[in-house]
Each structure stands twice: as C-alpha cells, then as structure tokens.
Amino acid sequence: MNTAIDPRRLHLEETVAQANRDLAELEAQVTGGEIDPETAAELRATYEAERDQALRILAEMDQVTADDEPARPGRSRRRIVVGALILVTAFGTAVFSVMRTVTDRDNPALQGSAASGPIDPDSVSNETLEAVIAANLDNPQINGMRFALADRYFEAGDYAKAFPHLQAILESDPPPEMAAATLVRLGWMVYDGNQEVELAASLIRQALDIAPDYPLGLYLLARVEWCGAGDPNAAVPLLERALANPEIDADSRSVIEADLAVARAGGSCS
Amino acid sequence: MRPARGIQIAAFLVVGFVVVLGVAFAARLDTNPRLAPSPLIGRPAPDFDLPLLTGDGTVRLTDFRGEIVVVNFFASWCPPCRREHPALVGTARAFADSGVQFIQVVFQDTPDNAVAFLDELGWSEVTIYALDPKSRAAIAFGVFGIPETYFIDPDGIVVGKIQGEADALVLGDTIDTIRRGDDPGQRVVGETQSSPPD
C-alpha cells in the first residue's frame, strides 16, 4: 500500500475543505439574514466553482489509482450510533416511496428489474439516485431523495459528495424539520472533516432551534462541545436530552449513556 | 364460354394461397414484432465503427470491452426522444466514473438536425454521439422504432433493451441490475416511432 503523502492531493483536499467551510458559513449567514441574496449567490458560485474544479481533479486522480485503493476500515461503534440516530430523524425518508412520487409513473417497467417484483430501495445505487435527482431538479419532491442520498454519503463519511446535496436542500427552502436535519449534518461535517468547532456548533444550534428534541442534533452537538471545545459540562445536558427520546435503539442508548457517565466525571471524550 | 377445368383449379389454388397468406399475416399482426423479445438479448452485440456526430474520427463498440455500454438510438423528429433526453444526460453523467459508457446513435436524421436537437436540449460531455450512415447499426441491432436503448455488458453481450422513453430510474436500475451480475432483459416503457413524420 502506498502511504506517501501527495502534496498536490493535500492541496486539492484543502481547497475542497475550505470551499465547504466557506459555503457552510455562507448558508449560516443567509439563514441568519446577515447577507443579501444577490451577494450570497455570487459568493456561492465562486466557492462552488473552486470546490468543483478541485473535486474534478481529485476524481481524475482517484480514477488513476482506483486499483491501489486500500479497503475501507470497518465502521466504528461511534459511527454506527450516528447511523442509528440518523434513523430517528425528525421526518421519515423512504427512498422508494420518494422515488415513486418523483417518477410519478404507473408503469409496469418500474415495478421490477430483470425478475418481476418491486425495485428494492437498497439495491438502487448512488449513481441511479444521482441520475434521478439530476433529471428531476424542478420537482419539489426531489428533496426527499436528495436527503436520502446525502445520508448515504454522510453515513459513509463521504462528506464531499454529501455536501452539495445538503447545500441544495437548504437553498430550496425546505420544511423546518428537513432544514434542521440538514443543518445538523452540515455542522457535523465541518467539525469532523475540518475541525471547525465554532461553525459546527453554530449550525447544529440553528438546527436545534428548529427541532429542539432532535436526538442526532443533540448527540452531535454534545460531541462538538466535548471533543472539539473540550467542555464536558456542556455535553452533559445535551446527552441527557438525547437519552430522553424513547425512539433511540438500545445500542445507541448504551453508547450515549457511557458517554454521559464519562462527561459527568469530567473525562475527555473518546 | 366456360373456363377450362385446369384454369378453374388454378384460380382456386390462387384464392386459397391468398387466404392462407392473409391468415398468416393476420397471425403475425397478433404477435407485434415490437413487443417480441429481441433476439439479440444474450448474444454478442453487433460491432459497429460509426463516424462521430461532430469532429473527425469514429467510435467502435469493441473499444469499450470491459465496460457497460448503453447504446441509445434517437432522432430530432422523435417526441419521446426529446422527453427522454434529460434522463439520458443525467444518467450518463452519474455513471461516468463507474465504468459505464453511453453512446447515442442518430437514427434516420440529418447531422444538422441532430446537432440542433442537442444544442437545444443539452449535450452530455461524457456521452459519445455518432452517426449511422445507411442505418447499418440500427439494422444490425434490429431497431424497430425509437427511442430504443440497448445495454451491453463488459463481455460485449447484449443483456438488456428498453423500448420507448425511459426515465432515469429505469435507466439506472437497468445498469444496477447488470452490475449485480443479473440480466435486466427487455422492457417496454412507452411508445416508439419508426420513421419521421411526413
């Protein structure tokens, strides 16, 4: 396995990260009414162009080295908790039902693939979802599918691909609960990907202003406050509020309870 | 004057032959060839070496062995092709980095009209657009009407066909099916047109 650091790749990844930080900050300013739409649109176009150009070059580099790509490490327990909490969203997102709504077709060909039977949502690739979204940009129902796809990327830690979809959702004036879920993911991405503690906390707090009991938001803000800002005391009430949600599954609950115990004791996050 | 007996028999035979032909033809009408399974499914794709719609050079199907190839026949005079176009562009882009190559072949249309069609509806930067002089590729693939889309697996075998205007979900699901190692087979999703309007 080649472990050499490629300075060009590092530069490009930093360009993408910086553009994403700028975009997230911009969306926060737009949401807070701190910037006029015209200026925001110009800045957004500039940041997106920089990011997209860097992503294109990175994709070309990935294509060349795809065969040498090491296997992804297994999912950590923490990531599984995030995955489980994602399921306790403030709103339901079923890929296939959204798909049916978006395509709006009563067509036998949509009912199955080679064999008969309905299309299994889990078998639909990210590329197909990307294609369906691209072909239905004017359809207001597309946000549900965008969110489902963004969540796949988010859960896989592929923030570069999740970001444009979450950004598009925010720009489309989504319903409050979807806006909250989107802001939480953006917040976590700028923290986990770029260690931007203040911006991350700000975005997740905006989400919790909209949906105060959203367990993923509470849990991730606790992690940002504790692991990022080094303040376990700030994490305690957030973790307690997350645990108050009866829909959290047992595994997630045990992880959050363990975190809570350490935070209460003033320990450092792990 | 009465006709000779031999002539009567010949006339009877002719009438009988016409009746038999008529019955056979009627029977064929019941089995609409457009809905019949493509004989190409499961067989090697007919190779082609077609001139590009713009610029010099050609596109040869066998050059893409190892990739999934989606071959779509279209024309500017075909309304379902216009409706289908955004889905083809979006799907081609979405799968461009995943070993899937889209080739769109102009069917019974002029290069100028095809270019105008794409100028109006949008080009895909990852799709190859080709001409089909004398419709040789269309004939080899057995195109009855357009839009028609063929799916060729990495071994060069035709494993799927869509007749009519496909949307991105149908196109993507067909590719996903191939990538899982299954054969999508044939789907009829809408009307096709076999010739330009008068």
Describe the protein:
The complex is a heterodimer of chains A (270) and B (198). With 270 residues, chain A is an all-alpha fold. Chain A has 3 domains: 1-71; 77-90 and 175-270, Alpha Horseshoe (Serine Threonine Protein Phosphatase 5, Tetratricopeptide repeat), CATH 1.25.40; 92-160, no CATH class. Helix content of chain A is 70%, strand content 0%. Chain A is built from 13 helices and no strands. In chain A, helix 1 runs antiparallel to helix 9 (176-194) and helix 7 packs antiparallel against helix 8 (159-171). The two termini of chain A are 28 Å apart. With 198 residues, chain B is α/β, with parallel strands linked by helices. Chain B has 2 domains: 1-31; 49-188, Glutaredoxin. Helices cover 36% and strands 19% of the residues of chain B. Chain B contains 5 helices and 8 strands; from the N terminus they run H-E-E-E-H-E-H-E-H-E-E-H-E. Chain B has helices spanning 5-30, 79-94, 111-121, 136-141, 168-179; strands at residues 49-51, 58-60, 68-74, 100-106, 128-130, 148-152, 158-163, 185-188. In chain B, the strands form 2 sheets. A 6-stranded mixed β-sheet of chain B has the order 5-4-3-6-7-8, with helices on one face. In chain B, strands 1-2 form a two-stranded antiparallel ribbon. The A-B interface holds A 59, 63, 99, 103, 105, 107, 109-110, 113-115, 119, 123-125, 127-136 and B 86-87, 89-91, 93-95, 97-98, 100, 160, 162, 167-177, 179-180, 182-185, 187-190.
